Amino acid sequence: MTPPIAPGTDRRTVLRATGGLAAVSLGGCLGDSRANDDADSGADDDGDSGADDDGDSDTSPDDGADVDYAVERVADGFDRPWGLAFLPDDGRLLVTERPGRLSLVDPEGGSRSPVEGVPDVHAAGQGGLLDVAVHPAFPDDSRVYLTYAATDGSDRSATHVGSGRLSLADPEAPALDGFEAIHVAEPFLSSDNHYGSRATFGPDGALFVTAGDRRDTDFGPDHVSQDRSVEPGSTLRLTPAGDAHPDNPFVDEAGAADAIYSYGHRNPQAMAVRGDTGAIWQCEHGERDGDEINVVEHGGNYGWPIASESCRYGSDERVAPSHRERGDVVAPVHYWPCGSGGFPPSGAVFYDGDAFPAWRGDLFAGTLAAEYLGRFTVDGAGPQEANVTERDPLLADRGWRIRALAVDPGTGHLYAAVDDTDAPVVRIVPS
Q: Which of 68, 192, 268, 305 is the most exposed place for a label (fewest CB within 10 A)?
């Protein structure tokens, strides 16, 4: 059960983003990895960029450490909320719930309306209604995109991408008109885990979607994530209509899936566009620890499971050599090595708002089992140059699994969805 926010002025609790990570106790929480893999790695200790052995010796000062903020409860009663997306020039927020509901929330009053026209979903294991994205030309193009797990009529399921046009003609009854599946990350598999399923539009208008490896445990070169003929374990790059982007790296490769943009992924549940470079960044679950932050490159192989920083569940045995021991894979820009406790991620956003100027350009990422909101400063551009440093945690005293993040384009407030039953959506505002 989510702990209540203590009563106070405007339902706010004033906090300060200061103090060291070492002062915060973040206990591990593995759980059953097969049934609930987003509790994979337990909690984070102090992180490790993996770039060198000197830790933070070359780390730049944290100009955003001393920031006063408050936490406000926006709306309550969500059942496993998974995705957040603001409607541009509207101020309202779309919220998905894993059992199969989509709501339109008024952040000012906290009211919410169910959105009709949502597809049937396979709400089992880690499946269900997952992410939501809004066409960048909204409202001129009113398409809203959903990712979700659905079956082929048997016990097999796959990550789906679908879209419909959001009708707001009746303020009391929003609806997705003409919703249809526009892409399926085939093949359908008999697993209810690792759907990936984050969706975001890149600066060129292409739709990026993550497809998890569906918990394939054949840890070798024949693993599904290393097989470019199928889509699980990859980042997909699609046109807004759901077709493979014509500039994808393997469109001319016989037998390769045209929609694949990058591959060698395990279960990326966080994805964001870095505003100053336009690059796509992802946060990805490892096996036992080994969670990663990656800059996603055209055609890049991110190694899973032939290169990894993680260990096998229940042991200290490495799954594979480190990324830096192979020359044919892209190494993460930040990772939590085996034995660190990890950072099982879900939801990410680069902060670009006006409410917290000291945080502009920082990467925020939710963590599940570790139950806090991570903040990372980023220097440098690409996978070889980027220097990522985890800073002091936010919301570490709440016992909240942070599932999804979004920045209100109007106010610059940072919104978070808590992964729980009867859960809140909250926002971080200046105190």
A: 68
